């Protein structure tokens, strides 16, 4: 467990490093093409794949995102599988059955594949799985068959901004995907793919080539970051080398 937990607004937040590595050849492109207009050099982009464990003052456990999954997961064509999420949880003293709430920021394979085990069973058998309605409605057949069908009975489908556990709220931030959501716990914001590269903190208008709606993603990113800066919030990012960014 390379990253240490921090306490934010009375919640213990543990970054779980599921994997580190570049994108595979299936989707890798030169960095200036990935973030057009950014001025980034043409060099390998090494992503860190972070999930987050929230432990409330009363011991309730919430997991944000489930990582890239195993060798045969939907992420296997491009991400450095297998992910180590379950080992990271064990290092934090948590078994999958202990988790009460799982929030999926969106259904891209590097954020959601770990919701099932290698043999297709629910990985977090006792958890409610929180997903935005718009994200579910836009899911492809492969995602529905491989990830959603096995956990259908556990789904809590929400619309917009909702409190999903005591003190834990989700906020719809559509753009990267139709139902992308961020997660707030007090002064902490777990941003999913709202921000993918540090260059977007300096210029939220920098597009990401794999955003579903680049204009909407840029607009929402600018609005959310402005609000979070005004609150002096702490970001918990999915793909930065260091998980926490203090605004």
Automatic annotation (TrEMBL):
GO function term, MF aspect, one: hydrolase activity
Q: One Pfam annotation, family name?
A: Lactamase_B
Metallo-beta-lactamase domain residues are: 48-239
Q: Which SUPFAM superfamilies match?
A: Metallo-hydrolase/oxidoreductase
The source's domain of life comes to Bacteria
Q: Name the UniProt key words of this record, in alphabetical order.
A: Hydrolase, Metal-binding, Zinc
Q: Which family does it belong to?
A: Belongs to the metallo-beta-lactamase superfamily.
Can you name this protein?
Metallo-beta-lactamase superfamily protein
- The scientific name of the source species is Nonomuraea wenchangensis
């Amino acid at each position: 467990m390379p990253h240490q937990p921090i306490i934010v607004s009375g919640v213990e937040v543990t970054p779980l490093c599921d994997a580190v590595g570049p994108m595979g050849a299936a989707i890798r492109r030169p960095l200036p093409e990935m973030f057009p207009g950014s001025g980034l050099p043409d060099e390998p982009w090494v992503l860190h794949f972070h999930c987050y464990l929230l432990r409330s003052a009363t011991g309730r456990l919430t997991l944000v995102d489930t990582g890239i999954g195993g060798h045969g997961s939907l992420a296997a064509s491009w991400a450095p599988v297998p992910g180590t999420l379950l080992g990271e949880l064990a290092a934090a003293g948590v078994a999958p059955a202990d988790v009460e709430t799982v929030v999926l920021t969106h259904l891209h394979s590097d954020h959601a594949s770990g919701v099932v085990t290698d043999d297709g069973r629910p990985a977090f058998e006792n958890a409610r799985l929180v997903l935005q309605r718009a994200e579910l409605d836009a899911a492809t057949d492969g995602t529905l068959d491989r990830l959603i069908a096995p956990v259908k009975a556990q789904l809590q489908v929400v619309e917009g901004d909702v409190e999903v556990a005591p003190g834990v709220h989700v906020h719809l931030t559509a753009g990267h995907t139709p139902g992308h959501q961020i997660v707030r716990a007090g002064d902490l914001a777990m941003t999913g793919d709202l921000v993918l590269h540090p260059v977007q903190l300096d210029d939220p208008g920098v597009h990401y080539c794999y955003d579903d709606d680049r204009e909407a993603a840029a607009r929402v990113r600018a609005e959310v970051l402005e609000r979070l800066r005004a609150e002096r919030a702490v970001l918990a990012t999915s793909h930065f080398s260091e998980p926490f960014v203090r605004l």
